[in-house]
Amino acid sequence: MAKNDPEIVRLAGRHVLELFSSAGAEVPLIRCGRVEFSAAVGVIVVWAHGLTVAVPMIPKDELRVCGSGNCDAAHRLISRAFEVHPETQMAVGPWRRALIVFEDGNGVEIRNKGAEKLAVA
Length: 121
Description:
Layout: H1 7-22, E1 41-48, E2 55-57, H2 73-84, E3 95-102, E4 107-111, H3 113-120
């Protein structure tokens, strides 16, 4: 959720977060079929066209993504953060690659397939 979102959007986001936070590991989801939350996100480091250096983005709230790998939760989190972060506003195109580092020390690299298709075209 962004600072400029209307209050109703913020409330809806909190409600969905509460629903997912209280869900057990066996609760089915539409996209990936399981709820397997990661550890809290510590930092997202993103590389994009038009940026001379990678940009670290530290979430102000505790964020977790689905850890099953069967859905695009991490990709959506990165895309949303990239759209609203002030340092990524000068990017010329979409983000290419990101690294999510979790508070437990693990991490995952995500590549933006859409950005790769644009670069080739």
